[in-house]
Protein: FG-GAP repeat-containing protein
Amino acid sequence: MRAAFLASAVLVTFLVPASPATAVASCSGVPSDFDADGRADLAVAAPYTAVGGHARAGSVTVLYGMRTERRLTQDDSGVPGEAETGDAFGSALATGDFDGDRCADLAVGVSEEDRSRPGADGDGAVQIFHGSAGGLRPAEVLDAGDLGRRRGPDRFGAALAAGDLDGDGDDELVIGVPGLGGGGVGVYGLKGSGPQVIEQDSGWVGQSAKETDQFGAVLATGDFDGDGRAEIAVGAPGDSFPKRNGQGSVTVLDVHRREATLFTQDSPGVAGLGEPWDFFGSALASGDFDADGRADLAIGVPGEGLTDNQRAMDYGDGTVDVLYGSPHGLRGGRAQAWSQRSLAGEPRYFDRFGAALAAGDLNGDGDDELVVGVPGENAVQVLAGSGAGGLTRKNNVLVPGRGGGFGSALATVTGRGLVVAAPDDGRLTLLRGSVKKGAYPGVSPATTARTLATTAGGALFGYALTGP
Structure:
């Protein structure tokens, strides 16, 4: 495989931005600001990048200020380990303030790393980089052994999220381990508690675990009850129920109270019906869509079939379910269901509406918009938030784009707009947001699209992006 390169700039493997002398001395607290200059930065994963002659070793490109491009790999100075064939460095990304210094830090999943013995692909690891006035700097590497588990082919780090789970002001790291039996979720950095792995059959979760559930394959965090501590939303898209293989589920974990709440399409208030191969929970995004100060949760159901005569396990037209936060956490009473039957566009077989999700305030009015990836038709759908009741179909837009798989990964960037990846072609596109209060999505088909970066094909550049 050819080594990937960015067409817009020559990549030199450093961990700091080009002009660290211009960086301020202290961290800004701006989400995703890795170099303390007060501007949001963006990390872009390319887990199939060839590094040092090793195919699919993986890399992560950091766009400081959305401009200056620097690439991170396992062969960089100070990064433990080395790039190897098939490691998939960049299989997942998460940003948060893990050390409490108000600089954003970056966690990089290396889900196919061999940690137990050479050739044991799929053990997995997570590489952490700490932000500073000089940019990202390599820090610790975590694997299952650091969370008290035996190293094995569990794909540790296949999903990542960050959130303040204990209310102490800094973020904890949440790590998906979907190959651990039916799956698991690691929590690292929790105040008053050591590192831990939570499984479906953990006593306080109380679910049965099956090998194909993929519990922990998808993660999000949000303060759904407004108590100042975030909860974890865990997608298990392969979760099966009697005669409903691959129906999928989402479990909300409150690690402080040690409480778990299970959601499926059969839960009270949730629209739809749990069916085989719906893959409910294949994508998650938390945001405050109704401006009430509590996080809400969007859940992708890309396998949902709306077209007649779909075959089992084929891709679907897709839908998205939305649950709203309350003083008692997420509830189904105000739940919404969205598809292109009720929005701009037309549902089609293989569209995979809901395969990727993102949330952010794109129009500057204080509530979040919901961005839905529709990679089967190379498009994104944007719904406006509203303090009057949450997401609305009013003024929703379908924005087509360039590149194979456009809409497969999404990120909103504070003050800049919406970033959309087309990893099949290695293209990254910025759709600038516009300030307009009310039920407006902040972007439109007429929005000027700017190509942020491109790579040679095959690297899966844009497979994962960091959000705010």
Residues 223 and 230 are 4 Å apart (CA to CA). Residues 1-24 have pLDDT under 50 and may be disordered.
